[in-house]
Design goal:
binds iron/sulfur cluster; TIM Barrel; alpha/beta
């Protein structure tokens, strides 16, 4: 058991390969930025025709129940027919979520996407992106940019607003300040996602094999030669967050395919106002959300509406069944005694997700997210989107093995 978190006291998200909350659609591999740690080779001619996108959605419909579809890439806003793609996903009864760096988003585009049925945006913003006019900006300095997107979405209304940031060794210390900024804007920022930096370290004394043949990994977008830290764990991020928020308490997770006590997706639901976080929902609350959605809607829950998230007070009525909510309700009531004016303030929920992508194990095995939500389609099959470049280059997954000494 890890000393930071105990997975046995948390809710294991019920997501699987054929039945998941989320699915990953890549209508393009073209991007208008070059982010450090990106898994996809940027191809300016990488837009898929609508028919191809439709076929991929058909594969999902046939093989995988899903609530939300993350429309990613590349940057999906560079696709000339992105509105039609969003409409296609919505027509299939799924929630279209755009994963973008935001560069190509204008107010007119946003309104057109809303009309097409977009349910949410996840903006990837961090200091490893080489954004024009933003070079050298710290994570804190980028909060202004984050806020401008959050305000755009709030102005249009009823769209879920998420931000994700890759966490590098040198930006781990900045995670709490992004969280503090998120609290300040808890009314319009609904989800914060932190993704530990990963790459395939080809320097490490391993051979990379495909079907018994040794391959050269260097053309693969996520292969690196230099010595960089590629093993930040979710628990490292939690430990960092606790320096500022000592009570920070995740309640749901996805384990690794190689390790039951690895937190590949780690979900926290915090409850509070701009001034104070009163507490964190517990595992039973997460379980109820997933199970009831599956029972009544036929799929696991991906994105909650902004309206629901702003009704945290009514969620506290579930305190008798969830100890996290009970603790939160108690802190809230004590707060009201000290400052009764708080009663008239809205109480919000905000998700904090920590993702620990593929882990390179010492024996060469790769520990993936068990119940991967970011599964996409390649050649008619469901595949991990984070490793798709291996299929593009070699036609199959690469298997690292410890390099044998050369006795010749
Ligand atoms: S296995 Fe890869 S694609 Fe799937 S959720 Fe984990 S990091 Fe993302």
């Amino acid at each position: 058991m890890d000393t930071v978190l105990d997975h046995t006291s948390m809710y294991r998200l019920p997501w699987t390969l054929p039945d998941n909350a989320i699915t990953w659609l890549e209508p393009t591999s073209s991007c208008n930025l070059y982010c450090d740690g990106c898994y996809r080779k940027n191809d300016p001619n990488g837009h898929k025709p609508l028919e191809e996108v439709r076929k991929e959605l058909e594969v999902f419909r046939r093989l995988r129940k899903t609530d939300g579809v993350s429309i990613a890439g590349g940057d999906p806003l560079t696709h000339p027919e992105i509105e039609k793609i969003v409409a296609m996903v919505a027509e299939m009864g799924q929630k279209p979520i755009i994963n973008t760096n935001g560069l190509a988003l204008t107010m007119d585009k946003l309104k057109a996407l809303k009309k097409a049925g977009v349910v949410g945006f996840t903006f990837h913003i961090d200091s490893g992106q080489n954004r024009p006019h933003m070079k050298g900006k710290t994570e804190a300095e980028l909060n202004e940019l984050r806020l401008s997107y959050a305000r755009m979405l709030a102005d249009v209304g009823d769209i879920s607003c998420a931000f994700n940031a890759t966490v590098y060794e040198h930006t781990l210390q900045n995670v709490p300040e992004i969280l503090a900024w998120g609290q300040e804007h808890i009314d319009i920022v609904h989800i914060l996602v932190f993704i530990a930096y990963r790459a395939a370290p080809v320097y490490k004394g391993y051979d990379y094999m495909v079907g018994g043949r040794k391959v050269d990994m260097s053309p693969v977008a996520y292969a690196i030669q230099e010595d960089r830290k590629t093993s930040i764990m979710s628990t490292d991020i939690v430990a960092e967050i606790r320096k500022r928020y000592p009570d920070f308490m995740p309640s749901a997770y996805l384990n690794g395919t190689e390790r039951p006590d690895h937190f590949k997706w780690l979900l926290t639901m915090r409850i509070g106002t701009k001034e104070r976080i009163y507490g964190y929902a517990g595992p039973k609350f997460m379980e109820m959300g997933q199970s009831l959605h599956h029972l009544f809607r036929g799929s696991y829950l991906a994105y909650t509406t902004p309206k629901t998230l702003s009704r945290a007070k009514s969620m506290l009525l579930l305190s008798p069944v969830d100890h996290g909510l009970a603790k939160t309700a108690s802190a809230y009531l004590h707060g009201l005694l000290r400052s009764p004016g708080q009663l008239f303030k809205r109480l919000h929920m905000q998700s904090v997700m920590i993702i620990q992508p593929a882990d390179f194990m010492e024996n060469g095995a790769l520990s993936m997210c068990d119940g991967c939500p970011d599964i996409t389609v390649y050649d008619g099959k469901l595949v991990w989107s984070c490793r798709m470049e291996e299929l593009i280059h070699f036609g199959d997954w690469v298997r690292p093995v410890i390099a044998q000494p050369d006795h010749s």
